[in-house]
Design a protein that fits this description.
The complex is a heterodimer of chains A (340) and B (547). With 340 residues, chain A is mostly helical. Chain A has 14 helices and no strands. Chain B is of the alpha+beta class and 547 residues long. Classes of the chains: A mainly alpha (340), B alpha+beta (547).
Chain lengths: 340, 547
Amino acid sequence: MRQLEFILRRLLTSLFVLLGVSIITFFIARVVPTDAASLYAGPKARPEELARIREKLGLDKPLPTQYAIYMGELLQGDLGNSISTKRPITQEISDRLPATLELLFAGMFIAMLIGVPLGVLSARWQGRPPDLFVRFISIVGVSMPAFFLGLILQIIFFRNLEWLPLIGRLDADMRFVSPVTEITRFIVLDSLLTRNWVALKNALLHLILPAFTLAAYPIGLIARMTRATMLEVLEQDYIRTARAYGIRDSVITYLYALKNAISPTLTVIGLTFAFALTGTFFVEIIFTWPGLGLFTTRSLLNLDYPAIMGMTLLGASGYVLINLIVDVVQSWVDPRVSLN
Amino acid sequence: MKRFTLFVSLLVALSLVLSACGGGAVPEAPVEPAEVTEAPATDAPVEEAPAAPSVLKIANTANITTWDPIASFSTEAAYMANVYEQLLRINPPGSAEQFTPLLAESWESNEDGTVWTFNLREGVTFHDGEPMNADAVIKSLDAARTSGGASFIWWMVESIEAVDDLTVQFNLNASAPIDLIASSLYGAWIVSPKALDTAAADENYWANGVEAGTGPYVIESYVPDQEIVFQKYENYWGGWEDDQFDTVLVQIIPEALTQQQLIESGSVDLVTSIPRENYGSFKDNPDYTYFEEPSFFNYVGFFNTTRAPLDNAKVRQALSYAIPYEDIIQIGVKGLGTQSRGPVPAGVWPWSPDVNQYTYDLDKAKELLAEAGYEGGGFSLRLTYAAENATHEAYAPLIKDAYAELGVDVTIEAIAFGTQWAEAKNDPANAQDMFLLLYWPTYSDAGSDNLWSMFYYTEKPFFNLSYWNNPEFNALVDEAIELTVSDPATSQAKYVEAMNLLVEEAAGLFFFDTKAVFIIPNSIEGFQYNLNYPFVQYFFYDLRPAK
């Protein structure tokens, strides 16, 4: 019950955060000295055409009125139309969100899969070669820029070894070979649901490089965080006591120590998750991954302000939501953390 | 407690899976993800099978800003041109005939070029089954000239009327080359009247790749930012041969390096963009043909002529002499360009070798600057260029260095093109001193476009971002435009006079005309470069697999 109350309160404050974000983005987007009408109509448009578009887009009205109109439409779930694609932003987002989420989930899955055990390994062998190795790996993971790592992986696994595809979510001719029926638009899930093994294999192969590139940073972070907290926990009396009882080392590490060490790591995982959402932007460009990142980059370059607004709001909502989830999960995993 | 045990054991399980994958896991994991091995072995060969031989796969950088054929005024032309047709298509320079008849079979104008008659092709149908006739042409072109993205190309058209079911007549209020205009890449597509009606009622009608043209291909599907699939239109009036492609699969790939990797690995048949620094490896490769051709594009710079010191022609001349043109071409486009003669790119009407150029001559520049009262320079200039354009980015510093030799300090600002452009148009008095621009004519007439658009004075500037106001130039351009059809020779002479005046007065800098490069694998035949359609890299209908 207290949990529910907490969540509701947090959601309510989140609304204010989002309102603030919307005001700031809206006005910043308009302060940029640009003419949205000429962006809409293209550089060679004549004055009459521009006037017509200004009226159509409501740009002839004062800024606060424009904001009020924008918010009014937003409350009805309408983010307006993109200037560069002329399609509704909500449609652009919903078309691309599954691709980004698929990549994000795969990346975070890999990050946890590799990062946590690496951290544990490192803590158990503190100061020994495995530890040095893990620490080296995590520094590389944290410090290597995604665009660089992505290109290197492409050169190795596509160009030299020819093991993995270069770009995209599926081979372009998969549509002729074994087309995927759209259900959820998560290709891996859809091909699994329709038992389309050829497409599933293809989609997974396409996921590996971008997901790993995306995971590199979180892997480093998670491994280091897990290592630090594990070291702290392994020093504690109850662990020594457990050892004295002759409990097996693996049980101590994974069952007793990791349990108490995992909580701060969870926070890190949550935050890197939100961070990875923007990290996907680089990765999507390198791997021509048809998600929100490609769209946002294009919108930024074209000063497509309705799209920029939409994406900023979406990103902010993502952060807020993930933070909330992290707090709730943390209190669930570690009762010492209270939800106040 | 139980929940937690579950959570931890999950993690343990995960780490076990990881170690099973080979510990370090970085290079190992990709080889055989656990799930993949479960795929039935019988399915595997299917994936290995090559796609049907009549599929053409292209990686193209061009994105779609709209599928509305009337509004279209951007890179989507690469696809529109395979789906829609104009009345005429203009051939590359040096062809035996200037035009290829498409939806018009023959055409003529009166002596002074103010009335034009086009006889339409019989038996042509739009992809939606509607017949192509005079009414359809009039409806399309009326829409194009009233609400189209490039509506201004038809500014002189008073009315278009049907003489009979297959004949249309253009009545103009000024002489103009309607044959050139009707072959424009923008604002000249003939569209099914039924689709136009539907689109008028539904703003988002075109949004998802709907089309209704007469061209050789139809759009089967479109996924934004990803791919477009074209199928051949069985009833195409031009007919089909066995070896033409049934299906064309276009992948939208913005990165040039990615495109290069795709073509080298054979994942696609054609690409549109390869990093310039890598051209060399294709030039020498016997598996590819390397085309280097003049293009529609040129790089120009505007001097803001509204205020001192750039309101002084001598200063502008000095600054024109101080430009190291050859270095700029080398650095800007790796030598793939030629120094411009005025704002008209080589190979496009009314370009002429008789237009003068500035040479790189620092002494002369210093001398002129001294004559103008600015000995040793002593002033500073703010230069802007579109941040999206890597060519500007490469050569702009050369201008700064060159002007530093004159004692002129240049501040370079890279800003988004839209911002740069809006700022320059809104308030000339406070705008930049120099504006770098990549320009190209809308259709194959750089007299009424490049010269008029960039340097003809109107109170609200269109593209005249030098704000230069020279009545003599304006008069010459007006006369030349008027004579384009009835007396091309005199028209060109007037244009040359106007351009020489412009170069003399140095309202702008004329850096270079770019060259277009195409790298075509020998497995594809039929490619022909057409300078007049710079945004259409490939006309799919012309292409065939090599025998």
